[in-house]
Each structure stands twice: as structure tokens, then as C-alpha cells.
Queue: 4 jobs
Job 1
Amino acid sequence: MAPTYRKRYKKRRTRKEQLQMRILMILIAVILLGSILGIIHKVKQERAQQTVSDSSWDITDKKYVDQRPELDVELLPVNEYSRPGLALKKVRGIVVHYTANPGTTAIQNRNYFAGLEQSHQTKASSHFVIGLDGEIVQCIPCNEIAYASNNRNSDTIAIECCIPDDTGKFNDSTYQSLIQLTTWLIGRYDLGIEDVIRHYDVTGKNCPKYFVEHESAWEDFHDDLAAYIEKNGVDKE
């Protein structure tokens, strides 16, 4: 092999090796980034689900709310897209969601779930939908699963909340009804306040949006649940 050719060959090989090294470094960086994001999400999940040290939340050991809020029971027809009719044998949590369609009413969202029987667009539903005026529509019995919370469908009650705008923040009427409904469910199923979670805590989805993007608001919501039980609860025997 002539010296000039050997130099060119060596130069091409060096460039190829450099390109391969850059590609390898990019792949490693992508893998590391994915791992870091996965760890961060796992830590947040564990933090949200861990045993709560705040003594004010221990109120559920002493009191419970036995007054059921007013419900508009509009059960979905049994179908494979929104009400499969499968038994929910044990309730271990309550999952809060938001509708992600500003300005719509509780009954409109309920009817959307019902319409999936014909449209086959997706599988989705919720046990309850809370509207902008605080109205609570029950779509599925609490002893059946809803298609709302992925791998927690089998042991949780789902609550969808309507929103007035793109911020995802609940108005006061919706918020107060959410507190009343959630505290009643906590008492009914002998749960703790730490058992009230977000859809985000199950899958990492930005739902309910405002409570995900404003962690302090989510913490305030838990504190408001405790305060409501303290004020309106009855003593456990």
C-alpha cells in the first residue's frame, strides 16, 4: 500500500471512528437522561404515596364524614368502552382528574363517556364528574371499575373535575364539591388523606393540570380535606 494511500485510509478511518464515538456518546446521553427522568418521577410518586407525617392528617383515625353530598345519578349504560361492569372489590384510593376541556359541564362530560359506546373512539370514564356550578354527576357505581386511572382502575374511585379555562384551576364551586365528595368517600371506605392522589401520581400525566403544576395547591387541598373532616366529621366508635 502506497504511503499516500495509507495516510488517506488512516484519515478516513479516524473520521469514521470519531463519528461512531459521537453517536455512541449521544446514545449514552439519551439513555442517562431517560434514566434520570424515570428516577425523578419515581421519587415524586413515592413522596406522594408515602405515609404522611403531618399530624393534622391523622384526623381520619378519629373522625369521618357520614353526610353524602347531593348527587345526580346518571349511570352510563354497560358497555366495553366506558362502563365494563367489572367489580371493584376493594377501594384503596381516590384519584382526582380534570376534564381538560374548558367550559364544558358535568353532564356534557358524562354524555361524552356514554357516547363512546357508539363512537369507539377510546376507553374512558369516571365514577363522578363535578361541574362548574358544583353539581356532582355519578356515572358509574362505586362497586364497579371506571376507565380512568390506568393500572389503578381496579382499586380506586375516580373523580373528574370541570374547569373554566386553560389554567386547569378549579373554581370555588367545583373545589368545594370536590372536598365534600372526597371526604365522604374517605369515610365511606375508611381511607386516609394520603390515599387521595392525582392521575399524575399513577402515570406521570399532567392531570389534574393545576395540581401538578402547583404542588403547593395540591398540599393545600390535602390540608383542606383534613380541616373539613375536623369541622364536619363525626367521631369514630
Job 2
Amino acid sequence: MILPIVAYGDAVLKKKCADITEAYPNLDTLLENMFETMYNAFGVGLAAPQIGLPIRLFLVDTTPFSEDEELSEDEQKALKGFKRVFINAKIIKEEGDEWAFNEGCLSIPDVREDVFRQPKITVDYVDENFKKHTEVFDGLIARVIQHEYDHIEGILFTDKLSSLKKRLIKGKLNNISKGKINVDYRMRFPVQKKKR
């Protein structure tokens, strides 16, 4: 089932999310719905807060990036078919010189900006079967994981921009939070308070 994606301005996107246990109800169905929702919106990652759930869960499928002809064959190969579920993730180490990459977000449509992140990360997480992993990721895979990880920490990529950049996109962000945007996928907009 395709779920509506929560738009910028909703409080759930600013919450630090809670861990879940194996007893979390209907987890398999939730994961299925999240993958379907992400693919429907042509995303490469989706975090639970983006569908209104303040839990430490996100998923990633970097396959669309593997078609980028500017990448080396090895990079394309690494990205193709990289599909993961991250539950209760914790980035325990970030390494290397920060590099810029133009990021966007399904919760913030039509806004893309360069964000600086470190290229190599070490992550502790459990998968959909609650099997523990500690893995090192780099390049674009690390970048997608960092972006989704920020979501479960209550951080949006726009929070990482300079104050000048934030001022320049303020109008766009206000429009998104008011639902004044056309997108090709279902969205849920924050409830606007009526003016008295």
C-alpha cells in the first residue's frame, strides 16, 4: 500500500525517534508499504518519520544511482542492487574530508541543495530479521544512509545549510508546509492553524 509522505513542517520530522523491538506490530507489512511508497515516489531512501512514525527505521535502495554514467564501473556495481533495511541504527564513526553532493528529500519536494558530509561511515544496526550488523559504507551509499539516519535523529538536510541558503529557500519551504506544491506522489501536509 502506498502511504502518504509527510511534508516539511510536520512536527514528526523534527523528533528524535525511538528504538523498536522484534515485537513491533506488523513490521513486515510496514516494510513492504515503505518500499512501495519509496519506489512510487522515485526515492532511494525512506525513513519512518516520513510516513508519520517516530521510530528508528529507514530503508535504502541505491539502484537508481547505478545508472549514472559519470560514476566508475566499480561505483555503479556497488550501487546496483544495494537494498537494505536499517533498524535502531547508530552511526558510530564518520571519517574523511567532507564533500558536497546535491541532495533532495521526498518530504521537501523541488528543493535541492549541496550538503557536505564525510565520505566513510561505520554503522551499528539490526536488519528486518533483527540480526545485528556493524558495517562500513562509503561514497554515495554512505551519503544516502547519512541522509536517512538524519531523519531518525530529527534532522533534515535543510538544517545543514548556511543561514543564507536557508533564507533563499524559506519561501519554498513555507509553500511546501502549506501544501502549495505539485508532486507526483501522495503527501500529507501539516494542519494549518486557522487565523482568528
Job 3
Amino acid sequence: MRRNRDNGLHIVTLLIIILSAITSLVGLLYTTEGNVFNFVNQYGDMVKIYGDGLYAHDSYFMAPIFRGTDFTIIFVAIPILIISLILDIRRKGLKNRILLTSVISVFTYYSASIAFGVTYNILHLVYIALFSSSFFGLIIAINSIDKCELKKNIGDKLPLKGIYVFLTITGISLIVAWLPDIIKSLVLDRSLELIEIYTTQITYVLDMGIIAPTALICLFQLKKQKGIGYVLLPLLLTLCSVIGVMLPIQTVFQIKAGISLPIGAIITKSVTFIILALFAVYLNVKFFRNIKCFK
């Protein structure tokens, strides 16, 4: 029964690798040789549209962000997922399974972002398949981890105080980073400042609606010494680590596209997340080193 479950997870992971390779490679390399054009959105604002490639109908501001994400997925996330899959196949241990689960969580976040955030294009069915594979793969992976065994095999050198601080800051900072934009739009009785051609900001939904609450739930579960807390922790740390790599790459793609970014926005958003990512990497290394069980 366990072997069948493992085989199912490995097949789903392979599917995630294939689908994400398609979405990211096409997003990064495909071109229609189109040109930038202007468009009046549903709120009467003039929006510059990218006009080329997979993101031809996305805004000129967001398309480079999507392409920066594609670059990160190809050169960072997919290689890590491949390595995690190979390790889990070769040695079915608790540490390798947690690593694989953590990396799958990155693809769940990524696939949700593109499935709900990118303007409809030729890869829409691939987006749906990737989101479905990542979402259910994450559920299967989490369910395959013995929470009691994990709790028993966490070493006593885990920097819990640092982890508590990190989770608290993460949960609060994600809300603080995005909530003012929403409050401002409500006070001014208009749409979000960078809503452009979109109906919502999927990043706000994922960060404030899922990631921030998960960080706080993880915090409370760890303080109660519940096994699920030790499962959620590496998922959050791995996701924050990859996002910390992704943000500067996205910024480079935007600057390369000639987009002027306010220094204030870069400091309050990008730099904050990069600093959190550095702490996440440190804590993640500490976490995996403190897992005593290898079988």
C-alpha cells in the first residue's frame, strides 16, 4: 500500500516537472514578434499591453514579472524538484519525503499564480493541469508523512525562538505589505493602483489569504508541539527561500524591459522579502539537519 502511494506521488511529481517545464519555457522563449499597444481597461484607465509572446495580452508591467518567474522556475525550482524526486526514489526516508513535499509546495504556489493571474492564453489547459497536479500532489505528499514519527525525530538543537520570530514576522509582513494598497483603493473608491487589465491581484489573495495564515497556524502548532507544525514549517521556509531568489530576478526582467520602479516600493517589498528569504534558508538548513530519522 505504501509502495503504491509512493509510486503515485512520484508519477504526479514527474508530471509537475513536465508541465512546469512547458509553461516556463514557452513563457520565456515563445515570441509572436508583436508590439506594445495601449488599451483602456474596465475602469477607464489607459494601460500599456506587452503585445508579444505568451503574455501578449498581459500588461507591460506584469509580463516581465511572469517571464522572471519562468526563468526562476526553469533554472532554480525545476532542478531542485528533480533532485528531490531522485532522492526520494532512491532512499525512501523521512527527510527526503519532507524535502520533496516542500518543493512541491513551491509549484502549488506558482501554478495557482499563473492559473488565476495570467491573462487567458494558449497554455490555459496546461495551467489547469499543473495546478491540479501540484495541489493534489501536495495533499498526497503531506498525507504520506508520519507526523508522530516526524515529531519524535526532531533534534533538540532546532532554533525554535528564531523560528517563532520568523513565522510571526512573515505572517504580519505579508499582510502589512499588501493591505495598505487595498485600504487605499477602498478609501479612494477606485480599483487597486496596479489592477491594470486584471480583475484582482492574485498575489494579494495567496499571500494574505493562505501564506500569512499558514505561517501563524504553523507558529501555534509548533508551540503546542503538534506534528503538523513540523510539516508546515519546511513548506513555508522552502517557499520563502525560492521567492527570495525569484524577486530580484523579476526585478531584473522589469528593469530590462525599461520599467521604472520606485525605490520605496523596492525597499518595502522586494528587499523585505529577500531578507526574510535569507533567514528562511538558514532556518531550513537547521531544520533538515535536526531531523534524526533517515529511514
Job 4
Amino acid sequence: MLDLALVTQQALTQEDSGWNMGSFGAIAEFHHVDDDPSPGDTKEHVQFTSRGGIRLDSLENVVPVAYETLSPKPHRWTQAVSLCLPQEMAAMNQREVLTELGPDADAIRVEDRQGILFDMGLNQFQVDFCVRTLDGDLLKILRENAGRSLFEVGNPAMPAILAAHPHRVALTRIGRVEVYQMIGGPDTGGKSPEGPHTHVLPKLLRAGRTHSANTPIPAGLTPCGALHPENPVIGRLGEDKPFNRAAFDAFQKLLNAWAPEDYITAKQDAWRLLEQGVPAAEASEPTTRVGRAGWRNGIRQWRLLHGNSPLLDDWASAFDREAALTEPENPGH
């Protein structure tokens, strides 16, 4: 039995682990950057740099769900551990208009605790997505437009936020992620900065979903955040990297403990049949969405574990083809 508190505490000290909190369309991410000081040991489940920070306030009642998703690139996959709460415990305030909350007394860094926090009013179930500032000009505009939707035609508050680059703060029932860097947009060449960053994507917000359909969260649970341990085939900047067997094995332990059973079963079935040399025409892929994802990732991982072969090419051609199961690796970048 894995200890979630120990797993998360260790991950906070690992440079290649990333984190996020948010919803489907509003998310704040914390990643280590090579130039930043190496993360030290933490007993308080907090880590921060000059670019952003992550703090886990409570793991009580948290249910970890480990998963691998299919990348659109056929030699890759993504992986994470969602930190979920029962739906009724995950709900935040779901404000629909810009709302001043006062000084952020719970900010990760002491120097930020006088900053004034504003809920952006994105009406997301499991996250209050906020901005924090002491900029007098921005405060004036935000206060003048409090009580209005940021997306209301003619509201100057959102353009002012995009121009001023205030801190962004994602608040959930399990903790917070703070981002101090600039907002990705015209001032950053249209790209999110390396390391901690945020995405607010109105098209996804309108879907009113708590998470992607390709994330296998059991019914009754809501993901409040996620840990992204080192990916064995994808680097921190999204680049391909040589297969890291140690990182692969480390995540398989989390997967075997916390993944949906049909995912694990499907992947193991694919590996067993490939080991036996069974042709694709004599194999039957799983009938569930989660099972098919496990089956396909099993094919991709078998190639890295055992090398290329005509049999594997036969399997990939027959089964690794369903575009609807793939997940964008960096939505909004």
C-alpha cells in the first residue's frame, strides 16, 4: 500500500515532477526550471521559486487516481496522478463575477500576503481562479468593475489583467498553485513562459466540465489537482528524450496501485499476447474507452521495452489508430 503523503512529499523535492490545480479550461501549473535552485526537502508539502509555487494544505479524503493518456504522437504518452475528492467535498464558491476577496493572508510567500486577491468569477466547480495584485492602477480598474463578468462586452478588467500580469492563484480544497510569471500572450510572443504558468481558455470553460473525457476519473470523484512525475519519453519543455527506464518503472508502481483496473488489465493483456507472438488478427482489443487506452499504450511501451518487430508493427497498424482517445499534451500552449 503506497502512502500518498510520502509520495507527494518526495515528488515536491524532484525537479522533473510537475503539478497543477484547476479545472477543464482554467488551470495553474507549477514546474521547475533548470536555472532555479534545486528544490529542498519539505515537511510542509510546499515548494516555490521566484516563478511560482505549490502548496498542499490537506490530503484528507483525497483519492489518488493514476493514469496514462495517449499522445497524438504515436511514440509518446502522458502520465499523472489526479488528486481527487468526493464530489460534495470538492466544491468551491463558483462565483460568476469578478469579486474582491481582500488581502491574501494565506499566500505561500510572506511578501505576498498583503496582495489583494480577486476571484475572476469563472464559475468553475472545483477551483476559485484568482488574481492577486498591489498595482494601484490595476486595483482601481478591478474594483470599478467588481460584480461584472470578465467576459462581458466592453469590460476593461480582462484587458487590464492581461496587460498588468498580476499573480494568478488557483485555490482548491486541497491547496493552491500560485504563478508569478507573465501571462502567455502578446507580451511573451504568444507562448506560455517556461515553468509555472496559467491557462484560461473560454471555449473549454463553456463546456462546464471538471476534467477531460480522456482522464479516467471514477464517478463521484472530482480532480482538484494533479502530480505529474517525470515522463520517461517527454522532457520538461515537451521535447522528445531518450527512454528513461527508471522513470518508467517508478510510475508503473503508482499506476499499479492507483489506476483503474480495466486500464491495467488491458495493458497487461496486450503485453502477454505480444510476448506469446499472437498476430493482431487473432487478438481482440478491449471494449471500454479506458481499456482501449491501456491496450494502445501497452503497444507503444512494448516497443521501447523490447524493440521494433514486424509483429509490433502489425499490432500498431491494427490497433493504435483511434484519434478520439488521444489527449493534447500541452493544451493552450
